Amino acid sequence: MSLVLHKPAADRGGPAQPLLIVGGLRKHFPIRGGLLGRNRGAVHAVDGVGFQVGKGEILGVVGESGCGKSTMARLLARLIEPDGGEVIFDGDGVGAADGISIRDLRRDLQLVFQDSFASLNPRMTIEDSVAFGPRIQGLSAAEAMRVAHDMLGRVGLEPSRFGGRYPHELSGGQRQRVNIARTLATRPRLVILDEAVSALDKSVQAQVLNLLLDLKAELNLTYIFISHDLNVVQYISDRVLVMYLGQVVEIGPVDSLYRDARHPYTRALLSAVPSVDPERRTRHSPLTGDPPSPVNPPPGCRFRQRCPHARAVCAAALPEPVEIAPGHRAACFMADPASGYDSSPTEGGR
Amino acid sequence: MSVTGLATSSPAPLAASAVRSHGYWSGVGRRILRDPVTVGCGAILLLIAAAAVLAPWILPADPYRTSMLHRLAPLGSAGHLLGADELGRDMVARLVYGGRLSLMLGTLPVALAFVIGGAIGVLAGFAGGWLNMVIMRSLDVFYAFPSVLLAVAISGALGSGMSNSIIALTVVFVPQISRVAESVTTQVRGLDYVEAARMSGASAFTIIRAHVLGNVMGPIFVYATGLVSVSMILGSGLSFLGLGVKPPEPEWGLMLTTLRSAIYVNPLVAALPGAMIFVTSMCFNLMADGIRSAMDMKA
Known about the structure:
The structure holds two protein chains of two kinds. Chain A is of the alpha/beta class. Chain A has a single domain (2-248), classed as Rossmann fold (3-Layer(aba) Sandwich). Chain A is 30% helix and 22% strand. Chain A has twelve helices and twelve strands. In chain A, strand 4 (84-89) and strand 5 (92-93) form a beta hairpin. In chain A, helix 7 (172-184) runs parallel beside helix 8. The termini of chain A are far apart. The model of chain A has no long low-confidence stretch (mean pLDDT 84). Chain B is mostly helical. Chain B has a domain at 101-296: MetI-like fold (Orthogonal Bundle). Chain B is built from ten helices and no strands. Chain B has helices at 24-33, 36-58, 91-127, 129-143, 147-158, 162-189, 192-199, 204-240, 252-258, 267-296. In chain B, helix 1 (24-33) packs across helix 10 (267-296) and helix 3 packs antiparallel against helix 8 (204-240). The interface between A and B is medium-sized, with 37 and 29 residues.
């Protein structure tokens, strides 16, 4: 009803146009130090990330802590300015002269954060928090409140009971539902969920995931689902992107990637997933050592210092992603027959 | 217990419809009311303020009328319950009337600095980057001087008088309050709900009004409350040095100066204005502490 008043932006590019095309996205945070604030180097938080998200799709993004997942989310939302690369939203270049403005982008793209408590203003009732976005978009106070109540109802929080409460009076799962309602109240087309369920109990996680799937179908949404939890990503995603130190190491359809991972990092991640099957329990730690510092990384493949299959060629150049199955690409020389990778075992090899 | 909706006593929203929702401030209010020190100090301050405001109606004695016969009358003399000063003026009347100017010197500069300094600090904190740098480093210049010296210097430059004292004290407090406002705003600005508000396309002004002010006002207010006693003491100090209020106007700091010479003759009477300054500033400080701890409680 109230949604008739308040519709999402129209589909401009048609169903075949990917909703989001990202190319060469880059953000280096400079490290300043010394007396005059000299530039001592840079954290290569996101370094040349490229991918596409189709309409109605769920793209899972996985990687270790500090690999640049959250920075990427904030770059896409333009909460921080990228240093380079382009983002095309439904055929329009973001921030380009003939494209879509940042302001319009924010109407279409929203972010759900991990910390459900920090995401809500502690001095606002939850209905006011949810109504804030629609109000900013120009709805009257009464209309915005109707939208807020409608959204609270959709996430399973009865507005008459919960609307007037403050965030500290709700449980973590309820607060994250409020955040989802708040995010969806502005009727975005793309929602980036940055570790949105990671802080919740397993049982509550399942509820919220199913809620997200229902809302996606009801409201025609597209998700980018960022998580470090591989089981959750496998459950919810259509395609999965694996990040390592600010770069995409592997991307592909969820089945193909989980069944036939080609990048040694992806394989290590997947073998680290705890299994309930005692036969399949891993005894050794698949990854040793900490990830190298993202400050001024050395040339070549960034994973080579931890990679059991590293060869001379890996230090020489950065591997380009190669297609190994339809839509499944991995940035590893082993996956590329033309790379000159020598597969004979070395002394360090296992 | 009659205390409904005690934050710790409602574990889960089971009987959700029965639980009335409490805002943050009602919780703070309840905690303050349960703290006897804060309530007591508030009551004393209220009493002093009420007496000062109602002085012409409740006091029979004229604070300006001198009497050579009663010079430095001791405590408890007939007609002068708290004695009389070096010109034979009734101390009760002078202390109560003195509260008017002293309280004004305590609160008005802080109130002005709260508005001005708060606005500067919130702006600098929310803007961040080079604007923050320029504003805060400019204000740091004031920190180079001790606050007493700065107040004396400004008062001296502007000339003596009540309004100049207030201006001088305001200038002293603006940088201090700005600094607190800037630091709390910087903290709040980085929180996810402010980022979420930015995502919804709200302007900086709207975000400050809707999401920032409510969350930074409390800490700034508490800090400012603690400054009231400092302001009273500095204001009294200015009067003491002859830079503030002029005689024969009753003001606690000034009274302390003029009674100074009587300290060996009648020490109890001479100490009375000092005692008033002490009690009042102490109450402001304790009250500020009480409010701070009431607000610190996790909701």
